[in-house]
Amino acid sequence: HKNREPIEKLVKLGAKECSSYDELINDINCLIICVTNTKIAKEIAETIISKLKNEIIFIDITTHHQNGSIEMENILAQKKAKYVECPVMGGPVQAEEGILGGIVGSSEKNFLEAKEYLITFCKNIFHFGPVGVGAKAKLISNFLSLGTTTFVIETIKAANHFNIDLQKLYDVAKLGSGNSGALTRIAEKAIK
């Protein structure tokens, strides 16, 4: 990786850096991945599938496209891997603090096994149903977040356009049903 700083920080905390897939999957019971998108996740799964031992638990934190996690489960089924999709809510800070929110799609049996690992970095874990449902729930949640954020930004632009005092508008908005985390996060920064 071009930015070695996060890797070096983790190594100092006791993580082991691997330089090959063979080294990574040597004698493990669980593999957790979090990559940029479905295409990369599938490339990794297709590369390591022949090297995996049967029935490994494979926890995928990647935010997939609509059917990406189903495609991943199909690839990993070749080794009878216990696939669990778990896109998360939060970022690196929440991960380090162990307070992410996990949106799980898997069989009940795989969920119970994966939970042992998920509780180490997720404060809240929600099992939505079989593989595929977790990814769809994450995408809908992202849609809500992006929509709310966009609406708050457009509201601030409209207030500026009409020369409305943003602090007063924010104080009023906090009292009504328009109050939200997005409003607080964005309005307070805009006011400053």
Topology diagram in text:
Elements: H1 5-12, H2 21-24, E1 30-33, H3 38-48, E2 57-60, H4 68-76, E3 82-85, E4 88-89, H5 92-97, E5 100-105, H6 108-118, E6 122-129, H7 133-161, H8 166-173, H9 181-191
Parallel strand pairs: 1-2, 2-3, 5-6
Antiparallel strand pairs: 4-5
How many individual β-strands?
6
Strand content: 5-15%
Order of helices and strands: HHEHEHEEHEHEHHH
For the termini, the CA-CA separation is 36 Å
Global shape: elongated
Major sheet details = 3 strands, parallel
Q: Figure out the total of helices.
A: 9
Strand order of the largest sheet: 1-2-3
Mean pLDDT: 94
Q: What brief labels describe this structure?
A:
single chain; 192 residues; three-stranded mixed β-sheet; 15% strand
Brief digest:
This protein is an alpha/beta fold and 192 residues long. The protein has helices at residues 5-12, 21-24, 38-48, 68-76, 92-97, 108-118, 133-161, 166-173, 181-191, and strands at 30-33, 57-60, 82-85, 88-89, 100-105, 122-129.
Tell me what the structure shows.
This protein is of the alpha/beta class. The protein has 9 helices and 6 strands. It has helices spanning about 5-10, 20-25, 40-50, 70-75, 90-95, 110-120, 135-160, 165-175, 180-190; strands at about 30-35, 55-60, 80-85, 90, 100-105, 120-130. A 3-stranded parallel β-sheet has the order 1-2-3, with helices on both faces. Strands 4-5-6 form a 3-stranded mixed β-sheet. Helix 3 (about 40-50) packs parallel to helix 4 (about 70-75). The longest helix is centred in the last third of the chain and has 29 residues, at about 135-160. It starts with a helix and ends with a helix. The model has no long low-confidence stretch (mean pLDDT about 95).
